Inverse folding.
């Protein structure tokens, strides 16, 4: 038995967007507020969530949250949004799953900006359904959006894998009763994930080996 269906996250999983998101925050702090801030700390805050990053930085430097968010959006969407590229190997995984099952996308990003990315990279064709923030589902780690996909398409849970780069993606997948794959290019791992990977080609190997019923233990590969 293999994985016929993948439920994907977008930012930091399919597209390498966090470096540009981090730059947008740093540039906003520096150019609009005269504040120099550490890249790695900002990256970590942004990866937790954009909202968390906005609130944390705004509170730390006594900046109005709404104003800071608007200035950040101007820089990100105006200067940096299309610099992000798909992670190496991700399209091969999408193609493989498309041929034998289906890909689904659940993201906290708005459909407008998501659509631009997917169209520009010709990725829309790989997804059966896309759930963006506009759908108004509870945000991950709430599993409501996962359950919706599973129920609507009558997916077998044992054949479905959730893939994401944050613990909230993994928690949502686990709560929905499916296996989970944590993607961290820097090599970090989390114990609650079924699989831990640092490169997308490793995920393709996991899928192929599961299909071939080799009996090899694939959990928590680096």
């Amino acid at each position: 038995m293999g994985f016929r269906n993948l439920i994907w996250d977008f930012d930091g999983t399919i597209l390498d967007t966090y470096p540009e998101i981090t730059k947008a925050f740093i540039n906003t702090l520096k150019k609009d507020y005269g504040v120099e801030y550490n890249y790695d700390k900002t990256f970590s805050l942004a990866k937790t969530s954009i909202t968390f990053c906005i609130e944390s930085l705004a509170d730390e430097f006594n900046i109005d949250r709404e104003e800071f968010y608007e200035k950040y959006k101007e820089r990100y969407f105006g200067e940096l949004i299309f610099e992000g590229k798909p992670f190496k190997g991700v399209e091969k995984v999408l193609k493989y799953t498309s041929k034998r099952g289906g890909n689904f996308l659940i993201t906290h990003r708005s459909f407008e900006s998501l659509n631009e990315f997917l169209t520009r990279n010709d990725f829309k064709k790989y997804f059966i359904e896309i759930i963006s923030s506009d759908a108004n589902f509870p945000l991950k780690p709430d599993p409501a959006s996962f359950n919706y996909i599973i129920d609507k398409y009558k997916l077998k849970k044992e054949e479905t894998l959730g893939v994401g780069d944050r613990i909230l993606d993994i928690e949502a997948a686990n709560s929905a009763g499916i296996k989970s794959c944590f993607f961290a290019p820097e090599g970090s791992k989390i114990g609650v994930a079924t699989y831990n990977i640092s490169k997308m080609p490793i995920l393709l190997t996991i899928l192929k080996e599961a299909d071939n019923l080799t009996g090899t233990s694939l959990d928590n590969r680096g």
Remarks:
- Strands lie at 5-8, 15-16, 85-86, 102-106, 127-131, 160-164, 179-183, 195-197.
